[in-house]
UniProtKB/TrEMBL annotation:
Protein's UniProt name: Ascorbate-specific PTS system EIIC component
Domain of life: Bacteria
Functional note: The phosphoenolpyruvate-dependent sugar phosphotransferase system (sugar PTS), a major carbohydrate active transport system, catalyzes the phosphorylation of incoming sugar substrates concomitantly with their translocation across the cell membrane. The enzyme II UlaABC PTS system is involved in ascorbate transport.
Membrane topology, from the record: Multi-pass membrane protein
Transmembrane segments: 14-33, 40-62, 94-119, 131-148, 154-174, 239-261, 281-306, 341-366, 372-393, 400-423, 556-575
């Protein structure tokens, strides 16, 4: 059984790595073109390494933002939920019940995506494996909140797996299709799609830009046509303009934060760690310019893999899936409008700041201490990637105004996505069962006795067993919950020390294990409660979540709906194929060549 889980973990990690996925598809395309072996290898390596360069650039950028965020929060005394998909997914991977079924949802979802690409009218193969993994974890967690227990019930396992995979696969073709109209305008071709969890917001930004373009009486001015005065000509260089803009952002946090640190008025450990590593002014400059370096690395990776991916994937689609398109990650559009990338990011972040104050006002409607009384802090990572991409979409028809308004609206939307998950009880912060799973996982690494005590205490509380030991354990469990609520020990050094003590002790007092393990789990409480999903497309998880709240039959409606959606997409595609084939047979013949007129005239690919 351990080998099975090892292979499952291997395929999960392999398929969650976009570089390997696109590398394989590129290799298939090159083989379909009957290229020489050396050319096949070169194509696959170029695309794989290009994607790794893209990921490396993203890592550099995220690392820089990781220095900014704690200083910003500590300087202005902000505490709340941070929408960050990478970090939240990372926290959920420690919960075995979620990650096991979530991994299988991703694998089956990718297979079902290929089936839809063949049978439906939406010919998209979704290649952004990392965001698919995050989405799979989100879907798995939502179904667990509806009462399904896949880790202990075979029927629930099959239901959650199939419902989750069909929901994911349907999303994998619908989201790129909604964006394709504007992707064609941006890239100047119909050969590549966009696969990212901000897709619904990108499409909305594109249509907002179109609306602005129609309303404007003067000629729409593209962000890439901004006329800089001669004295400011250096700002036409994207690298310079981005570096200076980000430096201003970082100064907004580091200057007051650094002064507070010097005066000994900054106590937040994460912020102090950033400011004390070296002279904080030097850190400010280094991290601001590191951000720009990350962007430049990403753009280099995009140029490398797109130049090789598009022609080989086209060959692959012509041979195996007619007219199919690769849906790739959002930075693919950055080189088409670098100024819009910067403008979109700033606009989205400003919307996030405004959203912060809106959620602050909403939080006053809840009692003090309620998990519902949460403030959503602007996460720089989603605001950069989603805002930048929305800027490119808004600019294509709406120019500068579109590049501002589209990302601004998108930035407001992603501020409220976490609230819907919190209010619905679809995340650990407001769902007792998911919290229990998180705490149990934390206990597994501490002591078998502690884990056993926790499980028995759960049973005692649930069934109210009459024995003396059960009553005692129930009291222990109550104390455990109280300690969790107080968040216990948070300093990493203390946690490591306590971990060693708990593991090495021979004390048979179970209460000791429960109490100390509860303190350890307090660190995990802070993590899962302070993070959340942050992209527009995560609303797909709200569909089964909301349907599942319908009295009596809700959980079954949540299961049936994605399955029927998937089947409907297949049937619709097959009907379209039959109608198109019938029209093709009935088309008039060209008297000179004997070819069908319709096929001869149609030279441009048709967007589904």
């Amino acid at each position: 059984m351990s080998f099975v889980w090892f292979m499952l973990a291997f395929f999960k990690d392999f398929l969650a790595t976009p570089a390997f996925i696109v590398g394989i598809f590129t290799m298939i395309g090159a083989i379909a073109l009957r290229k020489k072996f050396s050319q096949v290898v070169i194509s696959a390596f170029k695309v794989t390494i290009g994607f790794l360069i893209l990921g490396g650039g993203a890592g550099v950028l995220v690392g820089s933002l990781g220095k900014f965020q704690p200083v910003f929060q500590a300087t202005y005394g902000l505490k709340g939920v941070i929408p960050n998909n990478d970090a939240f997914a990372g926290a959920l991977t420690y919960i075995q019940a979620i990650v096991q079924i979530g991994s299988l949802i991703m694998v089956l979802g990718m297979i079902l995506n290929i089936v839809l690409a063949v049978t439906s009218r939406f010919k998209y193969v979704y290649l952004s494996g990392h965001v698919l993994f995050y989405s799979s974890l989100m879907i798995a967690a939502v179904f667990l909140t509806l009462g399904f227990r896949p880790q202990s019930n075979a029927g629930d396992f099959a239901i959650v797996l199939f419902a989750g995979a069909t929901l994911l696969a349907s999303y994998m073709v619908i989201s790129p299709a909604l964006q394709q109209r504007h992707m064609n305008m941006i890239t100047g071709s119909n050969e590549i799609g966009l696969g990212h969890t901000g897709g619904f917001g990108y499409a909305l930004s594109g249509y907002i830009g179109e609306g602005i373009g129609k309303l404007m009486k003067t000629k729409v001015v593209s962000t890439e046509s901004i006329n800089f005065p001669k004295g400011l000509y250096i700002f036409r260089n994207t690298l310079v303009s981005l570096s200076l803009t980000i430096l201003v952002f970082y100064m907004f946090a580091f200057l007051p934060g650094g002064v507070m640190y010097q005066l000994g008025k900054l106590s937040d450990k994460a912020a102090v760690d950033v400011l004390s590593g070296q002279n904080w002014l030097v850190t400010m400059f280094v991290q601001a310019f590191t951000f720009t370096a990350g962007v430049e690395i990403m753009l280099a990776g995009v140029r490398l893999f797109v130049g090789e991916l598009v022609p080989t994937f086209k060959a692959f689609s012509d041979k195996l899936i007619k007219n199919s398109k690769a849906a790739v990650d959002c930075p693919v559009v950055f080189p088409y409008a670098p100024n819009a990338v910067l403008i979109g990011f700033i606009s989205s972040f400003v919307a996030g700041i405004i959203g912060l104050f809106i959620t602050m006002g909403i939080s006053f409607a809840w009692p003090s201490g309620s998990p519902m009384a949460l403030i959503i802090l602007p996460g720089l990572v989603p605001h950069f990637f989603l805002g930048a991409t929305s800027g490119v979409f808004g600019n294509i028809k709406g120019g500068i105004v579109g590049a501002i308004v589209g990302p601004f609206v998108h930035g407001l939307i992603i501020t409220f996505v976490p609230l819907f998950f919190i209010w619905g009880g679809f995340v650990p912060a407001t769902n007792d069962y998911l919290q229990t799973l998180a705490f149990t996982k934390e206990l597994e690494g501490v002591s078998g006795k502690a884990t056993g005590a926790f499980e028995v205490a759960q049973a005692a509380q649930k069934f109210d067993l009459a024995s003396k030991d059960a009553a005692v354990l129930k009291a222990f469990f109550d104390e455990y919950k109280a300690l969790i609520a107080s968040h216990g020990i948070t300093a990493s050094g203390e946690i490591n020390s306590l971990m060693h003590t708990v593991i090495s002790t021979t004390d048979n007092n179970i209460m000791y294990y429960v109490r100390e393990a509860a303190k350890l789990a307090g660190k995990n409480v802070d993590t899962v409660q302070s993070l959340n999903w942050g992209d527009t497309d995560y609303i797909i998880g709200l569909i089964p979540g909301i349907l599942g709240k319908i009295p009596k039959a809700g959980k079954w409606i949540a299961f049936v709906t994605p399955v029927l959606t998937y089947i409907s997409l297949m049937i619709d595609g097959l009907i379209k194929h039959f109608i198109d084939k019938k029209k093709s047979k009935n088309a008039p013949q060209d008297s000179n060549s004997g070819e069908k007129v319709e096929e001869k005239v149609q030279t441009q690919p048709i967007n589904a």
